[in-house]
Amino acid sequence: MAAGPGNLEVTVNGGRVPTAAAAQGAHTYAISFTPRDPRPHTVELRFNGDHVPGSPFVCHVSAPARVIGAGSGEAPDKVSVGDAYTFSVDSPAPPHVEVLGPARRPVPVQVSAEDSGTGENEASKRYTISFVPIDVGDHSIEVRAGAMGGHVEGSPFLVKAYSAARVAVTDIAPGVVGRPVSFTINASHAGAGNLEIIVAVNGRNVPNYVQSEGNARFKVNFKPTEAALHTLSVRFNGHAVPGSPFPCPVSAAPAAADARATGAGLTSAPRGDPAEIQLTGFHTGEPSVYVSGPGGTSIRTRVNSMGDGRYTATYTPEAVGRHAVQVTSGGRHVPGSPFTCNVYDVQRVRVTGLGPGELEGTLEGLNLEESPDEERGVEVGRPVTFSVDAAGAGEGTLELVVSTPSTTVKAEVVAVARGLYDVTFVPISREPHRVSVTFNEQPVPGSPFVCRVNEPHTYVQVGSVATLEFDENLSDVEVVSPNGALVSDVNMEDTGVLTFPASRVGRYVVRGSRGPLAEVEALDASAIKVLSVGDAIAHRPAILTVSTSNAGAGRLSGRVTCAGQTVPHSVRRRGGSRCELVWHPARAAPHRISLYWSGAPVQREPLIVDVTPQHQGQEVSASGLGLYQAQVGKVASFSIDTLGRPAREFDVVVSGPGSRALPVRCYQTKSGLLQAEFTITEVGQSTIEVLHLSKPLSGSPYTCESFDPSKVVISGLPTGNIIAQTMINFTVDTKDAGSGELEVVCEALGERRVRLPVDLRDDGHSHRVRLRPASPAHYRLYITYGGAAVLGSPISLGVLSARSSSSARCAGTGLAAAHVGKEAAFTIHCPDDATPTVQVERLTEGKEDDTDTGLLECRVVAGAPREWLCAYIPLVVGLYEVRISTAAGPLPGSPFSVKVIDTSAIIAVGGWGADGAGRVRAPSKLVLDTSAAGPGTLECLLAGRHQRVETVSGRSVVTLAAPEGMTGEQELELTYNGALVAGAPRRALLASHTADRVTLAGRGLAHAAPHTPAVFTIDGSAAGPGAPEASLTSTDGETVPVALTAAGPGLWRATYTPRRAGDHQLRVLWAGRPVKGCPLTVKVSGGGEAGDASRVVCSGAGLQGGVVGREIRSWIDTRRAGPGELTAHCTGPNKVAYCELYEHGDGTFTLNVKPQEAGRHVLSVQFAGDHVPGSPFVLKVAGAPDPSKVRVYGPGVEPGVLATFQSRFLCDTRGAGAGQLTVRVRGPKGAFRVEMQRENQKDRTILCKFSPTEPGDYRVEVRWAGRHVPGSPFPVMIFDTQEELRRYLQATAA
User: How many CB atoms lie within 10 A of CB 1130?
Assistant: First the structure.
């Protein structure tokens, strides 16, 4: 500022080095230049032509730091674990060196300056760097020029550390001359390197063969030719592996070739019992028998001579498990030796969980104390569940048979864990049921068990009315209560129906003049108490303990679900009044448990039990219902146990239905868990990926099923009042609601809330519900889906007494459904002449108009005596309530829920597609928009048969399919909530050309040979009723007979034999009409009967290889090869690949190969018994690609300064399966060329680099098999100066 106005000039080396000036503020400038040579640079600053004070300045420039020695080349070096790796760096300042091991953990580094000499330029100094690797794997060496400097050219380097000490040589067994000897080498933990294997005997090498078993495991085979000690030398990268050389004794072939060992003692034997071995053919010497137990302990064996080379060996095993049995003669093993004998103990099989009085016999550990509150025996039709624990009994076969004197009973066995089984059977008659349990054909303790069976009782809940049906002629019937007193309020109707109230728990006995007639068990479900829930851990059995004291002689059952899935469970009685519900959770999420006492719900709402992950507190895990289930439009959540790790290390990706990404909110809770929340907006499957450091957690990705309770449709519920003891049937349709748990509870309101047994039967996406109210009362029906109330729930039901004519009641369609603009009516019957009060109100979430109360005018007009006719006209669609009350109070069932619809608001998207006569064609599809029609269900009938209706993108799609055997014009009926859809067509025209649906296949449609049978098939399964006709005509008019044979429903096999060569015309008719494509030209070629395989053409990428889990497809053309059979067979390293040949009917085929494993596969394709050209084909099958396993690191994906920026980075693809690495770099002016290098074709670590030309924002995209790897795309900021980089790093760190 003090220099005044003027011009500032800056030159470096007389202007030979370019400079740049950047204004930093008023009269302040930053001057920069990039030196190109390591020598002093002269900087001259002039102001108005005069040097400023101190000018010219001298800037000493030294050469950039560089690495000298091994490690700086493109090929990575190798170093043994524990040995020092050393290299040098020429640098003007002490370099900053960081070495990262395979797990990205730092490795200690020593940096020392050399005392003698300097670097290659006088301003630099040479430094020696060394480190000692301690882990096997790739080590990344990053060298920077100073602590804050950029990467030295070539940094980072890659050094592969190996360890010969981690090579394991196993399975070395003594050999026999002339027989192959094999041993195993496992170098999977030794790192990268080369194996050297030498088999020698008496100074001579023996040829050996190495077979790779994958993952650096090898099997080595050799065949000895002389009986002597062989040495096995194994070296890894020039280092001897531990134990090398290994001795391998080889003996001569056994002289006693007929020596044999047989008997149960070589295969299977019970613990504690003598096991025998029969030895024969030992004429040249006595046998030696050595037996060792599971822990290697020796077991005493006695060998007795039987004469003539026969012996008997006996030993007594004392431990359960596998025993090794060696049988030798003269030091040589007999054929099959060493043998493996499985020792088991049938006494360790435990049968538990069978209740008192159910079995006759003695069971170890079974509590046989009886209680008066428990029922005696089991009942016909009631499941019986018990457990068999054979986990400690060893290996064997468990057999279980349930039978009666006349037949066998089916038993269902569920494997709970290894050796633990739950067995359930349902008694089918009152005959005694025998349960026989054997293990290795030996009965377990107490088997067979005898089960006494009783006829089922009539159950009734305390507080309700018991109902029994008897002969109408019965008289003098009385009911004895559980305390012995007679029940006074007993009613016997003329129809033979007996009713009486059940007021106390216990057994009621109905007696007539000739003795007892029936028994009724009165139960109290409200007395069931949950004593303990217990810890619930995924993949471990959980126990819920329940007390049934004072609840009566009922039977406890349960229902356990999680996210719409049923969880295996069983109920065990433990004596006294205690029961256990044992359930087996597999998901770490809340589970819903419903308890039932002889069918009646114990609670109105299920018990919710949280299940924790199996290894909680030991490993990072995710848990919560949001991983598996979510309600549409509601926030779903789950938590991640981070074990104290920072939240930034975790990623949560939610892909909704249709693979659309959904926003996820993550935050830390007070308990230290990471909470994830998201909202799904439509029904379907979503995928949730939970990543930690770009790696998926155990169980990820999760599949989350979303559901929408508002799309659950209830139909068939009766309207108005219901008479007691009337069976109520209705349907709940969940096909458009997604996956959830449907729960229905019916509860009587009053002083004592009695819950009724509900029969809920699943019929696909439709559920049938049945219940029978026993006593007159006001009932509430609670229907939930996925734990959320469905539309209209709870539903009120008014139940009246059948013998009471004085009760008020109502009936009519206007109590359930109505149509906009049309009158809805119902009738009310009252016991007196007082006019009832009726209110009809529309239910709205918010008032559209402040003056609108939602009430509708309802006309109430007197009809017959004590009868009133009611009518109202709704004007808007929606849900309404009808409330009715008389002088005695609200009518039973009030308020009634009414659905109001408007069928005129249903719009056919794209029109109805009707013809001039107003008919639609079938088959076809109709798309209807019902969004403005109100709450309801669309149904379609074609010719009296239901048609499929599904919801797609919020619209109803009706699929019209022509019923089998029907043609012409048929009746069509479209209804919405039972009302005909306005403007919809009433007739449909069914296609009559059924022959168009017939398909032909087979080689006989295109080729044949003279005097050789040709075959093709006719498939008319989709064409409806009819039969085929076929004819074949030669060019001179000669007719060739075609024989037709039925091969299945609608499927026919056609065979013909042409007499001469030439073109023939084939005609096929179905129901008298030509099949589409006919007539066909069949080429009948002369010559031999066998085809020419050399003329078969195979093509397609599938002949080269593919990937596991994907079909490998190729095409085969046999049209020029003549007649013959085409076969394909493919084998992998260990498994056979599935081959599927699909014939197109014209001599061409599609071949699909489905490999089950990675590795080299051999595909054999033969025609007429000969290989086709190129067969057998060698296919290279790789593992499925997994981009999440790719790691990318290095300075090239980090911010830097342009002048010193090192663009190198490494892509480690080990473990990522088969795939192609694609790297794309985009900068300020477009894309950049990327160089990729690796040591060899098998190296899975790839070095990448690019050359940026100017500062700016760069994006590095790395894809594996077309998908982004973790972290991609990588943002890379390149700056002009070090100061800009420093400010950027500070800002990002903040």
Answer: 22
Closest Cα partner for 398 from 438, 352, 448? 438
Which letter does DSSP use for residue 375 in this model?
P
Separation CA 497–CA 471 (nearest Å): 9
Please give the structure tokens belonging to residue 686: 């979503």
Q: Give, as one character, the DSSP assignment of residue 680.
A: -
> Is residue 370's pLDDT more than 50?
no
Q: Regarding beta strands 824-829 and 907-908, do their DSSP bridges make them parallel or antiparallel, or are they unpaired?
A: unpaired
158 closest CA partner among 45, 88, 77, 39: 77
**Are 404 and 434 a contacting pair, CB within 8 Å?**
yes
What whole-number distance in Å separates Cα of residue 992 and Cα of residue 1105? Answer: 47
> 476 is written with which tokens?
């003098």
Supply the pLDDT for residue 360: 32
Q: Which of 640, 649, 591, 606 is nearest to 620 (CA)?
A: 640
Contacts of 1145 (CB under 8 A, 6+ apart): 1000, 1001, 1002, 1003, 1005, 1006, 1016
Whether the pLDDT of residue 117 is over 90: the answer is no
Residue 1206: partners with Cβ closer than 8 Å, 6 or more residues away: 150, 151, 152, 153, 154, 155, 1195, 1196, 1200
Question: Quick one: 916 exposed, middle or buried, by C-beta within 10 A (0-12, 13-18, 19+)?
Answer: exposed
In sign, the C-alpha dihedral spanning 133, 135, 137, 140 is negative
Could you write out the DSSP letters of every residue in 1173-1240?
TTPSEEEEEEPPP-GGG-EEESGGGS-EEGGG----EEEE-TTS-S--EEEEEEETTEEE--EEE-SS
> What mean pLDDT value characterizes the chain?
81
Run of H or E including 129: strand 125-131
Count CB atoms within 10 A of the CB of residue 1226. 14
| pLDDT > 90? residue 1266 | no
Residue 1091: how many CB atoms within 10 A of its CB? 24
784 Cβ contact list (under 8 Å, min separation 6): 709, 741, 742, 743, 790, 793
**CA 1218, CA 963: separation in Å to the nearest integer?**
49
Q: What are phi and psi of 845, to 5 degrees?
A: -75, -30
DSSP string, 747-763: EE-SSS-PEEP-EEEEE
In angstroms, rounded to a whole number, what is the distance separating the alpha carbons of residues 446 and 346? 11
Q: Are 958 and 922 in contact (CB under 8 A)?
A: no
* CA distances, 348 to each of 342, 352, 465, 1155 (Å): 15, 12, 50, 43
| Closest C-alpha among 251, 275, 397 to residue 339 | 275
**DSSP bridge partners of 698:** none
The one-character DSSP state at 65 is: P
Average pLDDT (81-89) is: 86
As given in the structure block, the two tokens for residue 738 are 């997604």
Of 390, 381, 456, residue with least CA distance to 425: 381
Closest C-alpha among 844, 854, 850 to residue 879? 844
> Is pLDDT above 90 for 590?
yes
- Residue carrying the six token digits 């439709």: 766
For 569-594, what is the mean pLDDT?
86
Question: Positive or negative CA dihedral for 550, 552, 556, 558?
Answer: negative
Confidence of residue 707 (pLDDT cuts 50, 70, 90): very high
What is the percent of the chain where pLDDT is above 90? 6
pTM of the shown model: 0.43
Task: Give the pair of three-digit tokens for residue 333.
Answer: 């093993």
Classify the phi-psi angles of 445: left when phi > 0, otherwise alpha if psi is within -120 to 50, otherwise beta: beta
Complete DSSP assignment for 10-21: EEEGGGTB-EEE
Q: Please state the rounded mean pLDDT for residues 778-807.
A: 77
